[in-house]
Amino acid sequence: MRGYVKRVKQKAEKLSKEQILSLLENVVDENESLYSVLESLSTGLLIINDDFQLLRFNQIAESWLPFSEHLEDILGSEKAIWEYIEDEDISSFLRKCLEKNITNSSEDFSTVTSGGTVRFLTVTIAPLINEGELNGKMILVRDITEKKNQDILLHRMENLANLTNLAAGMAHEIKNPLGAISIHIQLIQKALEKARENSDKLPAKKFVEDHIDIVNDEIEHLNKLVMDFLLAVRPVKAQLELKEPDKLIDGLVSFFKPEFNREGIEVIFKSSESGKKILLDEKLFRDVIMNISQNSLAALKSKFNREDEKNITDEAKFCISNTIHENKFIITIADNGCGMSSETLSKIFEPYYTTKANGTGLGMTMVYKIIKEFSGEIIVNSKEGEGTAFTITFPIPQKDVKLLSSDGR
Questions:
Q1: E-strand spans in 51-188?
Q2: DSSP track, 8-21
Q3: Chain-centre distance of CA 121, in angstroms?
Q4: 172-213, pLDDT tens digit by residue?
Q5: Could you tell me the maximum CA-CA distance found in the chain, to the nearest angstrom?
Q6: Strands 105-112 and 118-130
Q7: Which of 246-262 are b and which e, b meaning 16 or more Cβ less than 10 Å from the residue's Cβ?
Q8: CA-CA distance, 68 to 42, in Å (whole number)?
Q9: 3-state SS string over 52-64?
Q10: Measuring CA to CA, which residue among 234, 221, 224 is closest to residue 366?
Q11: Phi, psi (5° rounding) for residue 290?
């Protein structure tokens, strides 16, 4: 059709009125057909010129991206399209593409709908080619929420396998207090039986109270075990969104740094300075960093606050370092504290294992569980007397495509 219109255009002066009307009808029909295809796409589409001003769009793009105005009202506007996008991350991505002359790139974003639901989108900027030449750009918007949710569900199902270990640990922990309760109840029963045989003369008050106090203590212990167990097996309700871990950790370091400094501990944070985002639940991510940092604080205080270790010449240090390697975001949390024995290191993520007098033994189990929920991995290296390093690795979900400048280089 396009070739036909070009040929007719060259002979337009020789065409009759009827032929011109027939041609216009064909052009209108083709135009309507193209608009129908545009609206039938399952992908959001925005056509923009080289200055990122909107030329054409389909309704699905308008429904998926958070615009401040109706797209129909901004057609022909001199403002760039990103100025109408209310999501700061998406707007910044498009602005960067114009400033750096990027014509082929893709990134993932998370947005929150008016109903509070998280939606995951892939936004792609691509060149618009006309007869072998660049003639503007296309912004493609794909909804990948279902795929992300399926990935999250898969990881949650894998985490259910850990329930076997937790249940076994719980059964073992319950045996001891139940045994103690049984023994002391039997002693009280025997005392009451003797009292009935001895003219209902009860034993000394202190005798009964001692046994009842022990029973109450063991009941309290059992209650705590049950509550901790419920906490450990409860599904992690992660509200995953694309977040910059550099920014989140920087805020956390500012929060706990004064506490470390009061103990004479130097705190170092090295950002990756990449601007990369990973799928996280901000609150749960905070729990992970705070749990590990508090363990490091205890290890550093144990080593450097001992008066009997006058030969220590090192300075107490706590360091968080973020790096990018092979499309992975790596967080290393290290200290030069007292370190761990090989036995402790091998059991650090096991439920109910703790070296602290008042520890539940579930803190590091929850850390492991949360990191797995984020599709991450965690490994620990430690040497007794020298320190410990946690290495946490997360996949970077952005599908960065090789960047091409408009001149093809």
A1: 54-57, 105-112, 118-130, 133-143
A2: HHHTGGG--HHHHH
A3: 16
A4: 677 778 888 888 888 877 777 777 677 666 666 666 777 778
A5: 132
A6: antiparallel
A7: beebeebbeebbeebee
A8: 23
A9: CCEEEECHHHHHH
A10: 234
A11: -70, -40
Residues near 229 by beta carbon (within 8 Å), at least 6 away in sequence: 166, 170
- Look at residues 222, 220, 236, 230 and name the one whose alpha carbon lies nearest to residue 167: 230
Distance CA 314, CA 344 (A): 24
Q: Where does 198-281 have alpha helices with state H?
A: 205-233, 245-262
Tokens of 16: 């009759």
Q: What is the DSSP letter of 51?
A: T
Question: Which tens digits make up the pLDDT trace of 68-101?
Answer: 999 999 988 999 999 999 888 899 999 999 998 8
Q: Which residue type sits at 190?
A: K
Give whole-number Cα distances, 254 to 124, 275, 331, 333, 340, in Å.
35, 19, 17, 15, 27
Q: What percent of the chain has pLDDT over 70?
A: 74
Q: What is the mean pLDDT of the chain?
A: 80
- Cα angle at 355 between 352 and 358, to 5 degrees? 75
Q: What secondary structure does DSSP assign to 388-407, as a single string?
A: EEEEEEEE----PPPP-BTT
Question: For residues 44 and 141, is the Cβ–Cβ distance under 8 A?
Answer: yes
Q: In the beta sheet, which residues pair with residue 266?
A: 317
Beta carbons within 8 Å of 241's beta carbon, 6+ residues apart: 110, 112, 118, 279, 280, 281, 282
